[in-house]
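User: I'll paste a sequence; please echo it back and then give the predicted structure.

Assistant: Echoing your sequence first, then the prediction.
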Amino acid sequence: MDSGTLDLNFAEGTVHLAYRHRAGTRPPLVCLHGFGSTKEDYADLSMRPNFGTAA
């Protein structure tokens, strides 16, 4: 898995996104924290075998 950052610019301002990318044909999973949740809520995803396995 590789990771990086992406800046999305809107008229109201800029949103800075951190991402992790995995190879494969499965659809992406988007996790947004800071809207009532935290990054720790999603930490267990990386430990699930089906999340780290490319199709």
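The mean pLDDT is 78. The chain has one domain: 2-52.
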